[in-house]
Write a structure and sequence with these properties.
Blueprint: H1 3-23, H2 30-62, H3 74-89, H4 94-97, H5 99-124, H6 128-150, H7 155-164, H8 174-191, H9 195-201, H10 205-210, H11 215-237, H12 243-255, H13 260-284, H14 292-314
Helix pairs in contact: 1-2, 1-13, 2-8, 2-11, 2-12, 2-13, 3-5, 3-6, 3-7, 5-6, 5-11, 8-11, 12-13
Keywords: Cell membrane, Ion transport, Iron, Iron transport, Membrane, Transmembrane, Transmembrane helix, Transport
Protein name: Iron chelate uptake ABC transporter family permease subunit
Main location: membrane
Length: 315
C-alpha cells in the first residue's frame, strides 16, 4: 500500500472518530454540550500530536525506539512543581487555583530546566546518552522529593496532588489551550527546516556527520524544541508516560518508511485515533469510572515489556 493511501486511511479514521465523539449521544442542549466537547477534542488533538511528533524526533536523535522524552525527567519535574505549590502555599493559593499562573510557571520551569540541562551538558560532554543518563538521575531525584513532600501534606491536599499526577482531558482551560496552540505552531514552523535532516540522522551519528550534517548543533536545537513541546503538553493535561512510545512504534510498523515527512504526520494521526478512541471507551463503556491515562499507561506498559523482550531475543 502506498504511503499516501496509508495517510488517507488514518485521516478518514480520525475524522470518523472525531465526528462520533462530537455529535453522538447528545440528548439536547447543543449550545452547552458541543463547545465543551469541541474544546476537549482540540486538547486531545494538540497534546496527542505534540507528544507523538516529539517522541519520533527524540527516537531518531537517540537512534533508539524504546526511549521517550519522559526519561529526561520532565514528567517528574511537573509532579514536583504541583506538589511544591500545594506543600509551600496551600491548595487555595493562586499557584494552585489559578490555571493560567500554574500553566505559565510549570511550562517556564520545565523549559528552563531542559535548556540548562542541554546547554551546560552539551558544552562539556557532547553525548546524547550522557544527557539521558543525567536526565534519568534528575527524574529519580524529583520523584523522591515529590514523595517526601506528599507524605507531609494534609490528606485532603494530597488528593488534589494525586488528581494532577494523571492526565485529564475533561477540564481543559480554553485560554491556556489557545496559547499552547500558538506556541506549538511557532515551534513546528521552526522544526520544519530540520525534517529532511532527520532522514539522514536516522542513519546514525557517524553517517550523518559524513554526509555534512552539523550533528551536535542540530541535536541540541531539536532537544530544546522537544522539551518545549513536552512541557506544554504536560502542563496542559498532565503526564502521559507511555503514549509517545505506543503511537511511535505503531506508526513505524504501519508506515514501514524512514521518511519523516510521512512519519511525523502519521504519528500525530495515530495518536489522535488512539486518544479519541480511548476517550470514547472511557465515556461510553466505563462511564468515567477510570481515566484515559490509566488505560494508555496500562497498554503502553505492556507494549514496552514486549519491545524489551523482542529486543532481548534479537541480541
Amino acid at each position: 500500500m502506498r504511503l499516501k493511501s496509508k495517510l488517507s486511511i488514518l485521516i478518514m479514521l480520525s475524522i470518523i472518530l472525531i465526528a462520533i465523539y462530537l455529535f453522538a449521544g447528545i440528548p439536547g442542549n447543543w449550545e452547552y454540550i458541543l463547545p465543551r466537547r469541541f474544546s476537549r477534542v482540540l486538547a486531545i488533538i494538540v497534546t496527542g500530536s505534540v507528544i507523538a511528533i516529539a517522541t519520533v524526533v527524540f527516537q531518531t536523535i537517540t537512534n533508539n525506539r524504546i526511549l521517550t522524552p519522559s526519561v529526561i525527567g520532565l514528567d517528574s519535574l511537573y509532579v514536583l512543581l504541583q506538589t511544591f505549590f500545594i506543600f509551600a502555599f496551600g491548595s487555595t493559593s493562586a499557584f494552585a487555583v489559578n490555571p493560567n499562573l500554574n500553566f505559565a510557571l510549570s511550562v517556564g520551569a520545565m523549559v528552563v530546566f531542559a535548556f540548562l540541562l542541554y546547554h551546560l551538558l552539551f558544552k562539556k560532554q557532547k553525548n546524547v546518552y550522557f544527557l539521558l543518563l543525567v536526565g534519568i538521575v534528575f527524574g529519580t531525584f524529583f520523584g523522591s522529593l515529590s514523595s517526601f513532600m506528599q507524605v507531609l501534606i494534609d490528606p485532603n491536599e494530597f488528593m488534589i496532588v494525586q488528581n494532577r499526577m494523571f492526565a485529564s482531558f475533561n477540564n481543559v482551560n480554553t485560554e491556556i489551550l489557545w496559547f499552547a496552540i500558538i506556541l506549538i505552531v511557532l515551534t513546528i514552523m521552526y522544526l520544519w527546516k530540520y525534517i529532511k535532516l532527520l532522514d539522514v540522522m536516522s542513519l546514525g551519528k557517524e553517517h550523518a556527520i559524513n554526509l555534512g550534517v552539523d550533528y551536535d548543533e542540530v541535536v541540541k536545537r531539536l532537544l530544546i524544541v522537544i522539551a518545549i513541546w513536552i512541557s506544554v503538553a504536560t502542563a496542559l493535561v498532565g503526564p502521559i508516560m507511555f503514549l509517545g512510545l505506543l503511537v511511535a512504534n505503531v506508526t513505524y510498523e504501519f508506515m514501514k518508511t524512514y521518511r519523516h515527512s510521512y512519519l511525523l504526520i502519521a504519528s500525530a494521526l495515530v495518536s489522535i485515533v488512539a486518544l479519541i478512541g480511548g476517550q470514547l471507551v472511557v465515556d461510553r463503556i466505563f462511564s468515567f469510572e477510570t481515566t484515559l491515562s490509566v488505560i494508555i499507561n496500562f497498554i503502553g506498559g505492556a507494549y514496552f515489556l514486549y519491545l524489551i523482550l523482542k529486543e532481548n531475543k534479537a541480541w
